[in-house]
Design brief:
Layout (H helix, E strand, L loop, with lengths): L10 E5 L1 H4 L10 H14 L6 E5 L2 H10 L12 H24 L4 E3 L2 H4 E4 L2 E5 L1 H9 L3 E5 L1 E5 L3 E5 L1 H12 L3 E6 L4 E2 L11 E2 L1 E3 L16 H14 L3 E6 L5 H6 L6 E4 L1
Parallel strand pairs: 1-2, 1-9, 2-6, 3-6, 4-7, 9-13, 12-14
Antiparallel strand pairs: 4-5, 7-8, 10-11, 13-14
Helix pairs in contact: 2-4, 3-4, 7-8
This protein binds adenosine-5'-triphosphate (ATP) and Isopentenyl phosphate (IP8).
The site of Isopentenyl phosphate (IP8) has 16 residues, from helix 3, helix 4 and helix 7.
């Protein structure tokens, strides 16, 4: 099997659970937004040199993991059924996302996270990038998601889609990584709590100071996203955070336009 040749450069899109679901409503997808994003991806695809999609947990994975007190990814007294239920919740959301994308004719192919990724001491340690390259070389759009993965030291760990997308972006030498969320970009403080928060169009991950709102989800929320983004930025990947609820934004970002917040070193 030929390895994927990046050529034009692969683009990684992490579609956050805040866009795919109503995060405050248990197991409720935003079906119209999923359809809209699917169409924008379809319109942008001919100009891309390969695309990988990663999605988050939103109101599917997060409440189930929180129910079993898996906030830190691992609870030694959690019953085995907790693993079944978290993966099942994520697969339900994955099925909805996959169906929405396939409906407009996008050749998506789901990769079950725990089959290709491993953790060590609670952190994503490895991901099988060659498998993604092989799918890309078949003109497929691999899609994977944050979920439970097996951990060499702890047994298992919940890994965020943010960590997966950064690992894939660095491992594959991606051209860009786009985080799609429900806010216009990174603000100097949480815009949902502080209406006067200032949108930062360009953020230096080493110099600028950003205040993050209280984290309600199990994988560290936007703080984890921003901290991880630094790894991609420092290996030459163009990284930005955009609002996927605004029509046309994802299409524009896939076209290389300056929307949302650009992360720099
Ligand atoms: P998921 O983890 O389910 O995939 P997601 O990746 O879409 O979700 P979150 O982790 O929920 O996104 O992060 C987005 C949220 O972060 C926003 O809804 C916003 O309220 C919150 N937030 C906190 N601090 C800030 C900040 N300084 N700038 C922008 N958003 C912030
Ligand atoms: O929403 C979390 O992925 P994220 C996945 O990308 C689970 O942080 C299982 C909560």
């Amino acid at each position: 099997m030929n390895e994927y040749d990046p050529g034009n450069g692969v683009v990684i899109v992490k579609i956050g659970g805040s866009v795919l679901t109503f995060k405050e409503k248990f197991f409720e997808p935003r079906t119209e937004i999923i359809a809209q994003l699917a169409q924008e991806i379809k319109n942008a695809l001919p100009r891309l040199g390969g695309l990988i999609l990663v999605h988050g947990g939103g109101s599917f994975g997060h409440p189930v993991a929180a129910h079993y007190l898996l906030q830190k990814g691992y609870a030694s007294n959690a019953p085995a059924i907790a693993l079944t239920e978290v993966e099942d919740a994520m697969r339900k959301l994955n099925g909805i996302v996959e169906e929405g994308l396939a409906r407009v004719g996008l050749p998506v192919f789901t990769v079950q996270t725990s089959a290709v990724a491993r953790a060590r001491q609670g952190k994503l340690a490895e991901i099988n990038t060659s498998f993604f390259s092989e799918l890309l070389s078949l003109s497929l759009i691999p899609i994977t998601y944050g979920s439970l993965i097996f951990d060499e030291t702890l047994g298992y760990t919940i890994v965020s889609g943010d960590d997966i997308s950064v690992k894939l972006a660095v491992g594959l030498g991606a051209k860009s990584l786009i985080f799609v969320s429900d806010v216009d970009g990174l603000y100097d403080r949480d815009p949902k709590i502080h209406p006067d928060a200032k949108l930062l169009r360009k953020v230096s991950l080493t110099r600028d100071h950003v205040i993050f709102g209280e984290v309600k989800d199990v994988t560290g929320g936007i703080r984890n996203k921003v901290e991880n983004a630094g790894l991609a930025v420092s290996s030459g990947v163009a990284v930005r955070l955009i609002n996927g609820l605004r029509r046309g934004n994802l299409y524009a970002a896939l076209n290389g336009e300056d929307v949302g917040t650009e992360f720099i070193e």
